[in-house]
Amino acid sequence: MDIVFSESELEKVEEIKSRYPELQAALMPVLWMAQKKFGWLSKEVMMYVAGLLDLSYAHVYGVATFYTMYFKKPMGKNHIQVCTNVSCMLGEGEMIFRHISEKLGINNNETTPDGLFSLEEVECMGACGGAPMIAINEDYYENVSIMMIDDKFDLLKQS
Fold first, then answer.
1. β-sheet bridge partners, residue 79
2. pTM for the complete prediction?
3. Backbone φ, ψ for residue 134 (5° rounding)
4. CA dist list (Å): 96 to 52, 123, 139
5. What distance in Å separates the CA atoms of residue 159 and residue 149, rounded to the nearest whole number?
């Protein structure tokens, strides 16, 4: 796979760069663009982004590995995050995580063999009032139940 942005994506990178007085500040949104396009941030993708922003690979790698929102390995088409922090834990977040893990046959930070799902236990998603909470890709669900999760997974398997 060629690691290169399209012309319109390069224009978006230029627009992002124009928002900041220092190119370093554009790194996180450009990394997010790269992850959305390539699925994860391989060494080659991080080197490409470093070149676009005239930054060192070491700096890009440091940022990418510091933030958990950036994937450093291939993830499933549907990346599921389950909050198990205090509010969610009290709302059966740990039980929900175990249910999903058993249903998919994978553990934390693993991907199903078909590449359809990956699972991640996370600390806090900032919605304590709507606990328990999960995220599937960029969609957030509050007050989840096992039945709701099972219904959602059935729909995801069909898509």
1. 118
2. 0.79
3. -135, 165
4. 41, 14, 17
5. 15
Q: State the architecture of 78-158 in CATH terms.
A: 3-Layer(aba) Sandwich (3.40)
pLDDT tens-place string over residues 104-123: 999 999 999 999 999 999 98
Architecture of the structural domain at 7-66: Orthogonal Bundle (1.10)
Burial of residue 70, with CB atoms counted within 10 A of its CB: 0-12 exposed, 13-18 middle, 19 or more buried: middle
Cβ atoms of 23 and 17 closer than 8 Å: yes
| Structure confidence at residue 127 as a pLDDT band (50, 70, 90) | confident
Domain-wise residue ranges, the chain: 7-66, 78-158
Residues 79-102: tens digit of each pLDDT = 999 999 999 888 899 999 999 999
